[in-house]
Fold this protein.
Amino acid sequence: QNTVGTIRNDSGSYNGYTLLYPANSTETYLINNCGEVIHQWTSTYTPAASAYLLENGNLLRTGKISNSDITFGGVGGKIELFDWNNTLLWEYTYSSATVSQHHDIFPLPNGNILMLAVSTMTEAEAIQAGRDPFMLSEGKLFNEQILELEPVGMNQANVVWEWNIKNHLIQDIDASKDNFGVVAENPQLLDINYLNDANPIANWLHINSIQYNETLDQIVLSSRILSEIYIIDHSTTTEQAATNSGGIYGKGGDFLYRWGNPEAYGKGTSTDRTLFSQHYPHWIPDGFTDAGKIILFNNGNSRAYSSVDIINPPVSAPGVYIYDETTGYGPTAAEWIYTDPEPTDLFSSILSSGERLPNGNTLICDGDSGYFFEIDTNNTIVWEYVNPDAASGILTQGDTPTANLTFRAKKFSEDYPAFFGRDLTPGDPIELNPDLSECTILSTPEFVFDELIIHPNPSSHILNIKTNNTIDKIELYDLVGHLVLSVKANKQIDISHLSNGLYLTRIISGNHSITKKIIKN
Ligand SMILES: O=[N+]([O-])c1ccc(OS(=O)(=O)O)cc1
């Protein structure tokens, strides 16, 4: 039995490439299901927490730089963008005595980057914002902010949008302050004095994730300490985002939705909690099982087991969340919950993730053990991998792993555009003295083009090929296998000179191809 690297690869596993960015390592790896390294990037920094492989093959990665003033787990301060060949294209530093990037970022479709950060409120500012003066154990309080960065040059950015939690607070202890009000009547605001039984530290929210839904133009955040997730509008201007009006949903930067701990907004008690220091809430992508719902890793602090949960927020229209004056935001419970058959056998108090895969499997990262596992639709474990790149260095097969934490696991399909035209020849596994005797890459499912349509068919003259994938080459074969036509990078071919009959059209994209029948008439 292997102790690190791939532990299991059964026939039901999803055959793709997994991005691995160990928390204590400067390396980022792309591995196949046997744990063989397909590609690797090297930074000078360990990650703040997250990293992303972009569709163009670039790696966008957070980095941890030292900051003696802002020190909580997940503090980074840096973002780096590498191309496929590990050339640093851009870097950005957001770190000082009073601000820091931390945990997560999100690459937007337009090339901008959403960045999570804290900025320090002084004791006086916190009290002016309604914080109970007895709840300022560090003499400061962190304002959580989101900055949208438009990269400029090699190491600069324009901040093109901004949101700050300090503009969306409420409190019921000091009527002399502007934001005094009834917490239970204002679920769109955050009670600055709700501690959820935590110590009154500066990092009172510990936001650990930012994810984005392009269709809705909404952002979902996750607070580890308050055990709540929050959805806000991204369609606002920066000015609107500081208020309670404007944007597609008309609420400015106020919460559109919150879930996990209704006690936080006066709609329940601690027994109504459904989330426990959760991580990585994100919308399941279109085309996947449970698309549009929110999946997350529910770490389970204070209940001592972790789960992966899917919730389906009730809406009256897309992105418009139903609020019940008595019970608050629904649903009352998650729609799907995965726990280990022996629930306490899966427990990670920090980090971690769960994500749906294209074939309906679910990939789970037990972060504090650096353990990735994939379950099929019957909850059977079909793939297991243990990160061998630990704080002490690269582990050897057979070692008992320690300090090999991982923030998230993300598996990409073989047809993810980043892989087109790349050399994906497997190298060695990461671990020393590897043992792949039990592992084979079991299946190479046919490459699926994203909605490939050939029309008209039959055709006497022109064939049009409609697909979002890049077409590198089109080949036409007759029924005895002779190549009769070969066209480079085109979405249209002229077949008027061919004799009538049946042909096979082979469409090539990177190192994948698909073959379709067409009729010339
Ligand atoms: O040890 N860390 O690197 C670490 C610990 C906690 C942490 O915050 S959490 O909310 O993601 O668990 C982030 C990073």
Observations:
- The first helix runs from residue 123 to 128.
- The chain has a mean pLDDT of 95.
- DSSP finds two helices and 40 strands in the chain.
- The helical segments are 123-128, 238-241.
